[in-house]
């Protein structure tokens, strides 16, 4: 039976009890509007841990002044029904006032890893992410936390935060879950028009093209980026905001590719900004 918990103190009591009993806790932090990508992470936690806790919290700290905090989809009843069906034990669903009862006087700031890619486009975003993730880790006390590889920069930053702050938590990256036509599942896909939805799978196809170029021996980033741009321009009406090749998880821009690389892109359609990526390379951990 899935229980919904809204108070920090109650959630801490519950997790402390399971810790004393020696049970392992898996945790999936979310902002709600759940889809199969989220559910895949939860199912993995259910299979691997004794107790699975998810959070549903739309975190205001990671939204910029011109971003979609107020418009972000909120559907808690539907979300709870979905996770009940797969056997999640607890949904932690705090209010903003519960999480941030007053001004935050001590801030967690991400350094170089947040100065590129999404972090460069959204100043302060990853500071908000690590602040709320730190709070959630302290509240839930998980043994393992599950994050999607779709937000690969976020995954790299959370892994570094866990290392830097000595959290005794294993971070597990979960592969991107895609629609049958290849589009990465995302809460923002609902904002696509019918025509844009037909075009959106080409984001993944452009990354598959890049992967084929790499497999055929191409190691020049500029060449790969140019081919992705050409493909997207021809096959979508969206505005290409970025195509980039970085080392992973170090997130250092690459000119001549070696080792693991992260090829990422961002395309802005009329009402939805979509991101996607592939991680490939000689040392990729399959």
CATH architecture annotation of the largest domain? 3-Layer(aba) Sandwich
Based on CA atoms alone, the radius of gyration comes out at 19 Å
Mean pLDDT: 95
Gap between N and C termini: 35 Å
Oligomer: single chain
The fraction of residues assigned to DSSP E strands is 15-25%
Q: Main beta sheet, described?
A: 6 strands, parallel
Level-1 CATH class name of the largest domain = Alpha Beta
Low-confidence stretches: none
Enzyme class: ligase
Function: Catalyzes the condensation of pantoate with beta-alanine in an ATP-dependent reaction via a pantoyl-adenylate intermediate.
Active site: 38 (proton donor)
Subcellular location: Cytoplasm
Blueprint (SSEs and pairs):
Layout: E1 3-5, H1 8-20, E2 25-30, H2 36-48, E3 51-56, H3 76-86, E4 90-92, H4 96-99, H5 117-121, H6 125-140, E5 144-148, H7 152-164, E6 170-174, H8 194-199, H9 202-215, H10 221-235, E7 239-247, E8 260-268, E9 273-281
Parallel strand pairs: 1-4, 2-3, 2-5, 3-4, 5-6
Antiparallel strand pairs: 7-8, 8-9
Helix pairs in contact: 6-7, 9-10
Family: Belongs to the pantothenate synthetase family.
Main location: cytoplasm
Keywords: ATP-binding, Cytoplasm, Ligase, Nucleotide-binding, Pantothenate biosynthesis
């Amino acid at each position: 039976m899935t229980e919904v918990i809204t108070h920090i103190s109650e959630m801490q009591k519950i997790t402390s009890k399971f810790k004393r009993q020696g049970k392992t806790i898996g945790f999936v932090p979310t902002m709600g509007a759940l889809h199969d990508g989220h559910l895949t992470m939860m199912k993995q936690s259910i299979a691997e841990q004794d107790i699975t806790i998810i959070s549903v919290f739309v975190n205001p700290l990671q939204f910029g002044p011109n971003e979609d905090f107020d418009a972000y989809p909120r559907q808690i009843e539907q979300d709870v029904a979905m996770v009940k069906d797969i056997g999640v034990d607890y949904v932690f669903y705090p209010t903003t006032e519960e999480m941030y009862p007053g001004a935050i006087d001590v801030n967690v700031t991400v350094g170089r890893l947040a100065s590129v890619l999404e972090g460069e486009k959204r100043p302060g975003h990853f500071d908000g992410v690590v602040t709320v993730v730190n709070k959630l880790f302290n509240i839930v006390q998980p043994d393992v936390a599950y994050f999607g590889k779709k937000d690969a920069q976020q995954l790299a930053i959370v892994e570094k935060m866990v290392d830097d702050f000595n959290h005794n938590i294993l971070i597990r990256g979960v592969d991107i879950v895609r629609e049958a036509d290849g589009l990465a599942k995302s809460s923002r896909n609902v904002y696509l028009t019918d025509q844009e939805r037909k075009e959106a799978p080409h984001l993944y196809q452009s990354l598959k093209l890049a992967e084929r170029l790499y497999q055929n021996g191409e190691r020049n980033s500029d060449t790969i980026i140019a081919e992705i741009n050409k493909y997207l321009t021809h096959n979508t009406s969206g505005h290409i905001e970025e195509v980039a090749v970085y080392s992973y998880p170090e997130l250092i821009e690459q000119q001549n590719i070696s080792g693991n690389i992260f090829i990422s892109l961002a395309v802005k359609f009329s009402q939805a900004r979509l991101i996607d990526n592939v991680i490939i390379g000689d040392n990729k951990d399959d």
